Amino acid sequence: MVLEEIRVGLELNDYGMQQRRIAHMRFLGELYNYELVDSSVIFDTLYLILVFGHGTSEQDVLDPPEDCFRIRMVITLLETCGHYFDRGSSKRKLDRFLIHFQRYILNKGVLPLDIEFDLQDLFAELRPNMTRYASIEEVNAALVDLEEHERIVTSEKTNNEKHSETEKIPSRTTSGMSANGQSLSNGIEENGLHEEIVETESDSENGTIEHVAHDDDEETDDWNRDDRCDTEDESDEGNGPGSDEEDKVHVRSKVAEVDPLEEAEFERELRALMQASIGLWSADGSLCLPSPPPPPL
């Protein structure tokens, strides 16, 4: 929606819409600051402001030579989000645009003082070390040098990528062949050795060549025998199989030793108590209490 409004403003170039158009540029910059649009949208809009309507019959209507409003639009947008273009590809894109922007400014001739001061503040904030060109010829020469430098860098990068790819492919093929060759040779040697051992063992035991599956069975039996031997050894070390469980059962079933004298005393007291309790009950089931002792004289 904002991009459409910006384009409509460029198409109409109405003086009454200038404040609204400046607000649109500020809003677009804030959208980039909050990561709602990409940097490519910002640079596309900047270049659109510089070139829209140029080279057509309506150029004098859409962008008159004395009209500097597009310069103010660019300044507003770069003041809002231009400080983020300080590294990587965004920095190179902004450097390139500022050169094109200087050529556009020089085509306008003498600028109003307020626009010139805003431009000085903009370059001091974003690119304080950038050269301000005084003529269109200097700008064109700078653009030619920039394009040549970018072409050289691109070609070198392409050649380096191709060289790295050509180095990786043979190395992978050679390593793969060596690895496969080694594995194949090792496999052949191991298989040959295994066949010789099988033939030797079978000839010595039976006098004939047995099937390889029989060897596998023998190896399985040997393995099982080894496991059983290991298990028996562990059982012997533990004082017989299941020794731990027997120890636990023995401890649980162990009865504490009781003194015979104490046990006889306990039984005697228990019998006396039971006899005393039986004497309190009559044959009909009524409780018989002993008569109280006589009162003292």
Biggest pleated sheet = none
**Beta-strand percentage?**
under 5%
* Class per helix and strand makeup: mainly alpha
Counting DSSP E segments of at least 2 residues, the number of strands comes to 0
- Poorly predicted ranges (pLDDT <50, ≥5 residues)? 172-190, 193-202, 204-215, 234-251
Shape assignment: elongated
Helical content (DSSP H or I, runs of 4+):
over 70%
| Element-level helix/strand string | HHHHHHHHHHH
CA radius of gyration: 53 Å
Ends apart, CA distance between termini: 127 Å
Helix count, DSSP H or I runs of 4 or more residues:
11
- Mean of pLDDT: 77
Topology (SSEs and partners):
Blueprint: H1 2-12, H2 18-33, H3 39-51, H4 59-62, H5 69-81, H6 88-107, H7 113-126, H8 136-205, H9 212-237, H10 243-253, H11 260-279
Region (Disordered): 152-187, 200-262
Domain MIF4G: 2-124
InterPro entries: ARM-type_fold (IPR016024), MIF4G-like_typ-3 (IPR003890), Nmd2/UPF2 (IPR039762)
